[in-house]
Each structure stands twice: as structure tokens, then as C-alpha cells.
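call fold target=DNA-binding transcriptional regulator, FadR family
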Amino acid sequence: MDDALDALVARLVDLSAIERDGTRRLPPERELVEQLDMSRGTLRERLSQLESLGILDRRQGHGTYLRSPGASVVRTTFTLMGALGGLRPDQVDQAREMLEIVTTVEAAKLATAADVAELGRLTDAMIAATAAAEHEAGLEADLAFHRHLVTIVDNPILDVLQDGLAGMLRDTLAARRAKALRTETPAADGTYLTDTVHRQIVAALAANDADAARIAIRFHFDHHDAVVGSTDDDAGRDTTA
């Protein structure tokens, strides 16, 4: 948003009334025009902009409400940046790596037994899916594993960034997994380090050991970089087969 819209949102928050359910209801249009010293046409144009950004919710017969836009605005922005060439796959990888290293360290301090069990289950699901050549299921388990690390930290800013990058992360992770499974030599038991590397992260969180978690997530990315390298050549291909 531009500065004018930012300022308008701040004023609307001040003018809104908090309902019993915690939502913020805006005054009628006539009152907004007077309070904001703005023409009706300009007000409607600005409110339409905010609605398109997911910041306003118009409820027929009930009024207009302010709401948090969530990750949809961020997701649309990142998707558009990627489509227009303003965001490369390697930049998505870099952002993901930076965020996840910090997130994993924090998650190690907060993880409960239930969190550890869920991460262990998802790791087992990855391994089983790869063994069965069900690569889409393996991808879903991998995505869910890393999403759960963000869930443990329970920070709305990280949630928005994670969800906002979800579409692009899915594409780059699909490319990386496919290339890794083509390139990597399996262990004696048939498993791939691409999957089993997650066990070290689970063990670190089980011990609530932040230093071990940092080492484990760093090894996770170092392994992928060594086996896969850049995703530029693979992004956009069919990588689920």
C-alpha cells in the first residue's frame, strides 16, 4: 500500500467501533465523508482499493468491517513477482533457508512432545512415500513438516510469510525433491537422505536443543545444495513423477 492508504487505514481503525465479537465496524459512509474530509467519490475509490486488498469486508445489510488481510495479499504479490520475472527460484530458496534456520532454532525451544510426534510422523510419511514412488505424497509430507516448524513458533509474521510464499515454495521444493531423488544414491536400507535428514531435526527438537537444531537444519540445506544445486533449471518442470 502507498502512504495515503496506510494513513487511511490508521484513521479507519480510530473511527471504527469494536463489536462484541471483536470485529471492527466502520461508521456509515456519510459519517466517514465528514470525519475524513473526503469526497464521497474519493472515499468509495479508496474503500474499493482496501476491499481488493482484503482489508475491508462488506456485509450486505450489516455494514463494512475492517479485517486483517492474512497471507492472501502476500501470496498474490509473490506469485505476481515470480510470474513477471521479479523473483527467481534461487531467491525463494535463499529466503526460505534464512527463515527456516531461525524458525527451527526457535521451534527447538518451544516444541512439545506432541510436536515432536507429529514431525516424526511426517518424516516417516516422507520415507514411506518415496519408497512407494508416491512423490506427490512425499512432497506434501515435506511441506507439512516445515510448515509445522512455523506453527510451533506461533508468530503471526512468520505465519504470513510462510503462507505467502506457499505457492512458490511448493514449486521450488518439488523441483529440489525430484532432482535429489534422481541424483542421490540411496542408503543400504533403500532410504534417501533427502527424507531421513529430517530425523536429525526431530531429534534436536525432542531434546529442546537449539544448538543441535541449528546444526540439523543447516545440514538439511547443505545436503540439498550439494546434491541439487540451483533450482533455476528445474523450476517449472513436471517434477512429481
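return ok
The domain at 72-227 is CATH 1.20.120.530 (Four Helix Bundle (Hemerythrin (Met), subunit A)). Residues 230-241 have pLDDT under 50 and may be disordered.
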